[in-house]
Amino acid sequence: MAREQGGAVEKENRPGFWRSSLNPWTVRTKNNPERVAFVLHRVTGFIILAFLLAHILETDSPVWSQIVYHVNGWAFWNHIMGIESGLAFRIGEFIVAGAVLFHAPNGIRLLLTEFFGVGVGRPGDPKPPYVPFTFTAAQRQWLYAVFVVWIVLWIIAGVIIFT
Amino acid sequence: MAMDMEAARRSPPKQVTVRIRRYDPETKKTWWQEYKIEAHRGMTVLDALLKIKEDVDHTIVMRYSCRQGICGSCGVVVNGTPRLACQTQLTEVVSDANPVMTIEPLYNFPVIRDLMTDFTDFFNKHRSVKPYLIRNDKEEQENPKGQYDMYPDEYLQIYQYTNCVYCGLCYAACPVVAADPEFLGPQALMYALRFVNDVRDEGWKERFLIVDTEHGCHRCHFAASCSAVCPKAVDPAGAIQSLRSKLFRFRLGLYKRRVSKIIGPPPEKGEKVPLPPEATLLPGVDLKKLEEEPVVIKLPEDY
Q1: Best interface-test mutation with B: which of A13, A30, A36, A146 has the largest number of B CBs within 10 A?
Q2: Where does the sequence pass through the membrane (chain A) (predicted)?
Q3: N or C: which end of chain A has fewer CB atoms below 10 A?
């Protein structure tokens, strides 16, 4: 049908931007913590990127404040430090700490599996109940380890940040 | 997705509500339509759809063929999960507490009508990775003079990938295909590895160049949903990681593997080919003992 219409079907009915963007959240799969890790890796990546941009602005503030506001740089720095010692910024710091503490160990897991192909099992003869070899291989244990390490380190980070 | 063997033994609710996402290409309208059907034990989602088509609404369009999970035609999204309708028991998706089931066309595919999707892109991507044996000697490829040797462990390197039924569930579940429609997709990349792993094939350089692109295997981010929904445990997620690591070694000049050679001409028509006894017997069967005491199967007289 698509060929008869010269590919019109493909153009008209291709899933739209919102449907495509929501796909990681709308598709439900069983026995698939890798998908949770995929979504978390993306979200934490965006958080880290946003933090880095804000951090560059913050550390460079003694310089650009003199150009933009014509004030003493170090006075402006102290002003910013005063704002950042508030509770809202501590919560932000806690979120950034959580993002980094998940992104880094999960990144190591992804490097091992994606570049070196280790931990994904070897192809074989699937037997009932037909669980893919990747899901019984080492990467699944690494993933659970990543979740455990993440939660433990995040709790420690929370204690350090809020006390 | 692993088949739930226990599901067929349970009984579904007596009445099941089926919500189908429909699409009419003439008016270009999409809407949800609700049907109520009487369910019975052992009923699959495809049975439910056919019951609706036969008894309630003849205008529903869907694709199906074998009804036993071999043809891969009846892929739909049931309650948000891409599944083969014929292999999904109603008891897996509905319960007495929630007897409502939603059925949608496969995600990431253009919809032709109702539950029928257009696989043109999918098969074009499959073709693009050259899914056939390539030999350096073109004459040998066109007119092979014999058969190629292959050991059982080498066969196991490709066996699970040959189980693919082209149902498109992996493609529908992939979040990367959703974001990048030009991404080759789990099925095509898995098939590239199937031929890269095949010792009878010599075309790995060509395939590595095809998949080593922006929309090739580097685009995969290992969400592994393709493997989670695969009805045949083909495991495309593991295959793509394996393909990428082999490509990595190939780019470093470290990728090497055996290429099989022709072993003798093929047998003539009617010629008996002796096989090694261990290849033809079940474990625990003694050939000499069988010759001494042949097993006679007695059929009933009125057979």
Answers
A1: A13
A2: 36-57, 87-104, 142-162
A3: C
